[in-house]
Specification:
The complex is a heterodimer of chains A (about 170) and B (about 400). Chain A has a domain at about 10-130. Chain A has six helices and no strands. Chain A has helices at about 10-30, 30-40, 45-65, 70-90, 95-130, 145-150. With about 400 residues, chain B is an alpha/beta fold. Chain B folds into two domains: about 1-170 and about 335-390, Quinone Oxidoreductase, Chain A, domain 1; about 170-335, Rossmann fold, CATH 3.40.50.720. Helices cover about 30% and strands about 20% of the residues of chain B. Chain B contains 13 helices and 18 strands. Chain B has helices spanning about 40-45, 95-100, 110-120, 160-165, 170-180, 195-210, 220-230, 240-250, 270-280, 290-300, 320-325, 340-350, 370-375, and strands spanning about 1-10, 10-15, 30-35, 55, 60-70, 80-85, 90, 125, 145, 155, 190-195, 215-220, 235, 255-260, 305-310, 330-335, 360-365, 385-390. In chain B, the strands form four sheets. In chain B, strands 3, 5, 6, 9, 10, 17 and 18 form a seven-stranded mixed sheet that branches. In chain B, helix 6 (about 195-210) links the parallel strand 11 (about 190-195) and strand 12 (about 215-220). In chain B, helix 5 packs across helix 6 and helix 5 (about 170-180) packs across helix 12. Chain B is globular, with a radius of gyration of 20 Å. Classes of the chains: A mainly alpha (about 170), B alpha/beta (about 400). Chains A and B meet through helix 3 and helix 6 of A and helix 6, helix 7, helix 9 and helix 12 of B.
Chain lengths: ~170, ~400
């Protein structure tokens, strides 16, 4: 079973990044064309929309799932994709080269945050893991369960809790 | 006095609050000697249950000594009596109480109008729970006011420890009712989802009521080891397919009786539906995660019974109701009619047929309660059941 501690600082940071992901993703979905124009990547608007959908999915995963780590690794992989895409647009032929550089800087900062958060989550697991307790001696029964089977057959259970005889499973 | 007080999501504090006083003639004041954190307290802790307000005192599983009694409760209680307090408050006089349906008492919810609006008709008042069920201050405190105390109590005879009887207030009768309402027959396979405290009590109840085979489903190793100790065959849903394994254990026909001891916060698994639920719940588009219900409906033998002691708070989505209709499944559910069962269960404890204290894994002072909420919620440190000592 994966260990994770909800509301630890790492976990809170991951959930914060989840909301950020959703916000960014929605912005990319809604304003893909404008963003593409701003970075001189007009023909890439469709790709930006796809990345937006990815961001929303990762964000929802971070907010919704118990263990944030797989989703953080998803974010890091997404960061790598974003960086590669932006790097390909950062060339002398792009009149909006400076805007691409700004975007590259922002994504690099986000990547650093993602890596830090993921490392914190893993460190948390490494320090907190303890071997599972063995409760195999805690039956609560005075004799082995097999010997106790049916010991309360006489329990007073009123008719309203009973299955009507006609609806019971009948012997084959 | 000191009490554990709700301040918001995952924010329970050990606060000083005013001492309770007798407000109605049927009240009693109880000095709490032991109380427990219940799995359903976690729904409040995580704020999945609507109707909580800052300052609410938590706790609905508690016991103690009577220190003051209202004029009209004196026929049933006296100062010095040692009692367990059931979490469902009941008047004993309304039509539902006269039928033994104490958890839907028509008179004990002081916020009846609110419950009428949301549920259609009110249910009983509950301690330390949402204002939809009366918003009564709970028992994770040094003292508590018990309304309708002449009915809402279980007197404890000498010679039994708090630990043996404390769970008569909730999880033991809850597990018992979950099994009892399945009307277990000696040929039945009973599958139980969730090996938390209620699940553990349900396993023992199903064994005692004579099930041929009891199967328990969870993913937490220590909970599975405790389930096995109680006589269950265990399924770790992270390691094997629940549906395949249940069919294998029942000759391909499915269990006759399926019990949901999980409720609204079913854990995410690798299944699509549970991820869907998590996502919708995180975005506040549904209140409850219904993975266990879907699985039970799918795997249960046609004409079988689904029993639901697990707490649900509001809305569920994508529930294949057609499966249930076409298979002719019977649904039994509801909060526990605690006092319907407690005389019989107390006798079984006295006779040594069962000792419910087996489930306690942590005992701490009330001041350590806030930390234990987190430990219990996160299933850390082998935590299955926490008892607090005010």
């Amino acid at each position: 079973m994966a260990y994770y501690r909800r509301n630890s600082s790492a976990d809170r940071m991951a959930r914060g990044l989840g909301w950020f992901s959703i916000g960014l993703g929605v912005a990319e979905l809604v304003a893909a064309r404008r963003l593409a124009r701003w970075m001189g990547m007009e023909e890439q608007a469709g790709l930006i929309r796809t990345y937006g959908a990815r961001e929303v999915a990762t964000g929802v995963g971070l907010l919704a799932m118990g263990d944030a780590r797989p989703w953080m690794w998803g974010r890091i992989a997404g960061d790598a994709l974003d960086l590669a895409t932006l790097a390909s647009a950062h060339h002398d032929g792009n009149p909006r080269r400076e805007n691409v550089a700004t975007a590259l800087g922002a994504v690099a900062a986000r990547t650093a945050l993602d890596v830090l958060c993921t490392a914190m989550l893993h460190r948390e697991e490494a320090t907190a893991w303890t071997p599972p307790r063995d409760y195999s001696d805690r039956s609560g029964l005075p004799r082995p369960p097999a010997a106790m089977r049916g010991a309360a057959k006489d329990a007073p259970i009123l008719a309203d809790m009973r299955t009507p005889a006609i609806l019971r499973f009948q012997p084959a | 006095m000191k009490a554990l007080v709700w301040h918001g999501t995952a924010d329970i504090r050990y606060d000083t609050v005013p001492d309770p006083e007798i407000e109605q003639p049927r009240d009693a004041i109880v000095k709490v000697t032991s109380c427990a954190i219940c799995g359903s307290d976690l729904h409040l802790y995580d704020h999945f249950m609507p109707g909580m307000e800052k300052g609410d005192i938590m706790g609905h599983e508690f016991m103690g000594e009577v220190v003051d009694v209202g004029a009209e409760a004196k026929s049933a209680l006296k100062v010095g009596d040692r009692i367990v307090v059931p979490f469902t408050i009941w008047c004993g006089e309304c039509e539902q109480c006269r039928r033994g349906n104490y958890s839907v008492c028509e008179r004990s919810n002081r916020n009846k109008a609110m419950a009428d609006k949301l549920f259609g008709h009110t249910t009983a008042g509950l301690f330390g729970y949402t204002h939809l069920t009366g918003g009564y201050p709970g028992g994770q405190a040094e003292y508590v006011r018990v309304p309708f105390a002449d009915r809402t109590h279980v007197k404890i005879p000498d010679g039994l420890t708090d630990e043996q009887v404390l769970f008569l207030g909730d999880i033991f009768p809850t597990g018992w009712q979950a099994a009892a309402q399945c009307d277990i027959q000696p040929t039945d396979t009973v599958a139980i989802w969730g090996c938390g405290p209620v699940g553990q009590m349900t396993i023992r109840s199903a064994i005692l009521l004579g099930a041929k085979q009891v199967i328990a489903i969870d993913r937490v190793p220590e909970r599975l080891s405790m389930a096995k100790a109680g006589g269950a065959i265990t399924i770790n849903f992270e390691e094997e397919s629940v549906v395949e394994r249940l069919n294998e254990l029942t000759g391909g026909k499915g269990p006759e009786k399926c019990i949901d001891a999980v409720g609204m916060e079913a854990h995410a698994t690798a299944t699509l539906d549970s991820m869907y639920d998590r996502a919708k719940q995180a975005l506040a588009l549904e209140s409850d995660r219904a993975h266990v219900l879907r699985e039970m409906m799918y795997v249960c033998r046609p004409a079988g019974t689904l029993s639901i002691p697990g707490v649900y708070g509001g809305l569920i989505d994508k529930v294949p109701f057609g499966v249930s209709m076409n298979k002719g499944l019977t649904w039994r559910m509801g909060q526990t009619h605690v006092n319907r069962w407690t005389d019989d269960l107390l006798r079984r404890i006295q006779e040594g047929q069962i000792d419910p204290s087996f489930v306690i894994t942590h005992t701490v002072g009330l001041a350590d309660g806030p930390g234990m909420y987190q430990t219990f919620r996160d299933k850390r440190d082998g935590c299955i059941k926490v008892v607090l000592k005010p």
